[in-house]
């Protein structure tokens, strides 16, 4: 049978075993991964959508470009990579295992011809004595040899780190292990988000896919705080969290500080400091300049409202006591921004017990007097919530990969064969890596060996 | 002596070293080669001390952290790792002229940092307050540096290959001082053999940090994705050696493309794309 008449199953097998496929998959993965770094992933922001045409949007959507790393064609490529990896290993592993478990211990003619590091030493003395001397040198300088006796000749075989041949397969296996870990995580884990106001607790979080997830316990935010460096840059975001089971704090999880880079983990669910904000409601009154006809106006923290003349007003900042910022004044105050009819924005401060100062803002508030009545404000903490039972599998894969790559690159399977006959010692060896280094080693070994052997001619 | 004046001395030493290597390639004068190497090693020493001083200075300011926290510090560190990896190869294999193709990368980094980046020591924002930052940055940049060296060697390989085709046996040309193609090919592989495990470790430490700080070891943010792209290219390079037909010139091109992707991963992502890694910002 000629190779052109291969069966179909054989061609498929060869296809999956080929290293050309490996090159193709690796390079294709590298190139198409670029798409997702240029096109925003997830829900594309409106600013981006304005920059592309409707047709393009439809095309991108149907090709899955907005979630390309989970699209069928990306998964297909990863599957191709995995199949290629498995097929290559299945094809090559048996021979490698045989090399390791059943090494060729006798250097025959075929092997002798294939070895590049080959030396013959002419010597005197009987084979048995020579064998012992060579064995001693190999043991001291390399590894303990195994001796086989055939036709009056002794064959010595010694090797180091035969298992290092498996390292490449460990690396390949690690890729699959990481994939498995990722699949476990996506099937049995979730990523979610929750905002908890200070003093309140929650037992449910919202997942990224907008599903409500019951935690099975509750988390209370005792306090949230931000501290700053002297130059004003934020230094630390800190939530104090308590885990509650049946409404009662769990020992060891009472008032735990959680900061960025130091999360809280309970029952496999982890809470990460992610964002924060203010919750609260503030009361204002809008009245005639002399204070008559007061109408209440309510605004949320960082919220907005409409003044009677229709212009918009936003609440920026409040304080229960202005004296900290402006000496000579006291009581609660609020900083607001008004969007004037002429398109300008005006920012000013509204006081609760200083109508005279408030009257200076009449031009911006449509001739009405705006006064702050006070309000209550709480911080809330924004926590990222994640559960990923596959993450340990991923770490095992990563460790396997790093160790595997190190061994694959920097350790070598070295083998040395020696044939001892009456009068001649023939030595050959090879190495799975770093031929240059091995050649040097062999030269040094020869020098040492020659010192131990009764040489025929002491050249 | 402050760290900043030592960084200036470093930049100057790298400039002279690069010019020395160029002169060495042209003149083949052993003295020039030795001088260029000495300047590179001297610069490396000055830079090492400078980085240590900057670290100490940050503690004196009360905001102590490893000097690996912004674009200026990273580009200085990148330069340092490039000369370090070059030095290791030089000590082991002694092909001096490679310096002519490697020192320009180191000089470019230092010159850019010293001339146009903000070199002030800033406090660490909360997102970077983690020991993982140090492990992650050191491993990544050592990997990048090995790829820079491999790229320089690949450029030499391609010049040599082109030259051998057009004018074989021209003993007078500069190219004749280059190591043989086979040697360059091997050195290219050896540098990537240093870089690939380090990049792998860099990606793994990054994933470990992301998992610790955000709860996801991988979120396909542009920086992560680009590091994976770089990783794919070098994985392809490693397999190229096993596949006949992909060695030599194609492998050299893969190494150059890999370094271009590395630079995009390091700088392009921050300057052109948006994402979670506001690092170089
Ligand atoms: C498409 C899937 C892949 C296939 C089919 C494949 C196949 C192979 C084969 C046949 C070898 C040579 C083994 C030998 O020398 O006996 C090899 C080496 C190697 N592979 Fe892969 N591989 C794949 C993907 C990967 C990936 C994703 C990595 C990432 C780390 C990787 C890392 C390595 C390493 C480090 C070596 C050793 C290279 C060297 O010694 O220079 N492989 N691969």
Automatic annotation (TrEMBL), chain A:
This protein's GO CC annotations: membrane
Subcellular location: Membrane
Organism: Geobacter hydrogenophilus
UniProt topology in membrane: Multi-pass membrane protein
Protein name (database record): Cytochrome c biogenesis protein ResB
Top-level taxon: Bacteria
InterPro entries: Cyt_c_bgen_Ccs1/CcsB/ResB, ResB-like_domain
Keywords: Cytochrome c-type biogenesis, Membrane, Transmembrane, Transmembrane helix
Pfam families xrefs: ResB
Residue ranges occupied by any ResB-like domain in the UniProt entry: 19-348, 349-439
Major localization class: membrane
Spans through the membrane: 21-39, 71-90, 166-190, 392-412
TrEMBL record, chain B:
UniProt keyword terms in alphabetical order: Cytochrome c-type biogenesis, Membrane, Thylakoid, Transmembrane, Transmembrane helix
GO CC term, one of those recorded: plasma membrane
Keyword Transmembrane helix: yes
Keyword ATP-binding applies: no
Protein's membrane topology: Multi-pass membrane protein
One GO MF term attached to the UniProt entry: heme transmembrane transporter activity
Transmembrane spans: 6-24, 31-51, 71-89, 96-115, 135-159, 192-214, 226-244, 251-273
Pfam family name, one: Cytochrom_C_asm
Domain of life: Bacteria
Any Gene Ontology biological process: cytochrome complex assembly
Domain called Cytochrome c assembly protein: residue spans: 68-277
Principal subcellular localization: membrane
Subcellular location: Membrane
Family: Belongs to the CcmC/CycZ/HelC family.
Record's function text: Required for the export of heme to the periplasm for the biogenesis of c-type cytochromes.
Protein name: Heme exporter protein C
Native source species: Geobacter hydrogenophilus
């Amino acid at each position: 049978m000629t190779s052109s008449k291969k069966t179909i199953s054989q061609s498929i097998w060869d296809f999956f075993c080929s290293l050309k496929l490996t090159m193709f998959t690796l390079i294709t993965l590298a190139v198409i991964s670029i798409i997702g770094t240029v096109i925003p992933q997830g829900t594309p922001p409106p600013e981006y959508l304005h920059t592309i045409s409707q047709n393009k949007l439809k095309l991108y959507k149907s090709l899955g470009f907005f979630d390309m790393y989970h699209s069928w064609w990306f998964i297909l490529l990863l599957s191709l990579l995995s199949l290629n990896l498995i097929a290559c290993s299945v094809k090559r592993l048996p021979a490698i295992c045989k090399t390791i478990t059943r090494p060729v211990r006798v250097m025959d003619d075929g092997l002798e011809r294939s070895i590049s590091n080959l030396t013959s030493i002419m010597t005197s003395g009987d084979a048995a004595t020579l064998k012992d001397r060579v064995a001693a040198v190999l043991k001291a300088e390399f590894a303990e040899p195994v001796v086989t006796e055939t036709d009056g000749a002794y064959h010595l075989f010694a090797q180091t780190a035969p298992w290092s041949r498996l390292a490449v397969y460990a690396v390949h296996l690690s890729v699959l292990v990481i994939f498995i870990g990722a699949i476990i995580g996506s099937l049995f884990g979730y990523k979610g988000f929750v905002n908890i106001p200070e003093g309140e607790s929650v037992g449910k979080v919202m997942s990224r896919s907008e599903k409500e997830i019951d935690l099975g316990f509750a988390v209370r935010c005792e306090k949230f705080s931000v501290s700053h460096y002297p130059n004003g840059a934020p230094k630390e975001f800190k939530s104090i969290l308590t885990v509650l089971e049946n409404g009662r704090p769990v020992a060891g999880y009472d008032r735990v500080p959680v900061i960025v880079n130091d999360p809280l983990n309970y029952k496999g669910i982890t809470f990460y400091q992610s964002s924060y904000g203010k919750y609260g409601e503030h009361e204002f009154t809008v009245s005639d300049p002399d204070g008559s006809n007061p109408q209440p106006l309510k605004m949320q923290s960082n919220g907005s409202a409409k003044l009677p003349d229709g212009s918009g007003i936003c609440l920026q900042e409040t304080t229960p006591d202005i004296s900290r910022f402006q000496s000579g004044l006291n009581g609660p105050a609020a900083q607001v921004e008004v969007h004037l009819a002429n398109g300008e924005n005006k920012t000013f401060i509204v006081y609760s017990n200083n109508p005279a100062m408030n009257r200076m803002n009449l031009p911006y508030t449509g001739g009405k007097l705006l006064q702050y009545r006070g309000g209550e404000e709480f911080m809330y903490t924004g926590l990222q919530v994640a559960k990923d039972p596959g993450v340990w599998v991923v770490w095992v894969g990563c460790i396997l990969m790093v160790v595997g790559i190190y061994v694959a690159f920097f350790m070598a399977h070295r083998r040395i064969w020696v044939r001892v006959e009456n009068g001649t010692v023939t030595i050959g060896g090879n190495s799975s890596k770093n031929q240059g280094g091995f050649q040097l080693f062999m030269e040094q070994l020869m020098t040492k060996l020659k010192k131990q052997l009764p040489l025929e001619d002491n050249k | 002596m402050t760290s900043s004046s030592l960084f200036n001395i470093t930049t100057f030493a790298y400039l002279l070293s690069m010019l020395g290597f160029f002169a060495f390639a042209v003149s083949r004068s052993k003295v020039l080669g030795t001088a260029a190497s000495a300047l590179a090693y001297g610069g490396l020493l000055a830079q090492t001390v400078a980085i240590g001083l900057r670290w100490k200075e940050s503690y004196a300011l009360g905001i102590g952290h490893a000097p690996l926290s912004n674009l200026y510090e990273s580009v200085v560190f990148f330069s340092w790792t490039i000369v370090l990896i070059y030095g290791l190869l030089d000590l082991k294999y002694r092909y001096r002229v490679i310096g002519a193709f490697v020192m320009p990368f180191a000089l470019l980094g230092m010159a850019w940092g010293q001339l146009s980046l903000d070199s002030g020591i800033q406090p660490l924002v909360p997102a970077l307050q983690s020991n993982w930052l140090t492990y992650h940055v050191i491993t990544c940049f050592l990997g990048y540096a090995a790829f820079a060296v491999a790229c320089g060697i690949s450029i030499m390989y391609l010049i040599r290959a082109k030259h051998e085709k057009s004018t074989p046996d021209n003993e007078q040309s500069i190219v004749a001082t280059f190591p043989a193609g086979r040697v360059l090919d091997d050195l290219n592989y050896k540098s990537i053999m240093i870089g690939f495990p380090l990049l792998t470790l860099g990606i793994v430490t990054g994933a470990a940090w992301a998992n610790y700080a955000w709860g996801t070891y991988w979120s396909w943010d542009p920086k992560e994705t680009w590091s994976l792209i770089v990783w794919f290219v070098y994985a392809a390079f490693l397999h190229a050696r096993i596949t006949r037909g992909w060695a030599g010139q194609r492998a050299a091109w893969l190494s150059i493309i890999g370094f271009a992707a590395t630079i995009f991963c390091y700088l392009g992502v921050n300057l052109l794309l948006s994402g979670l890694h506001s690092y170089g910002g």
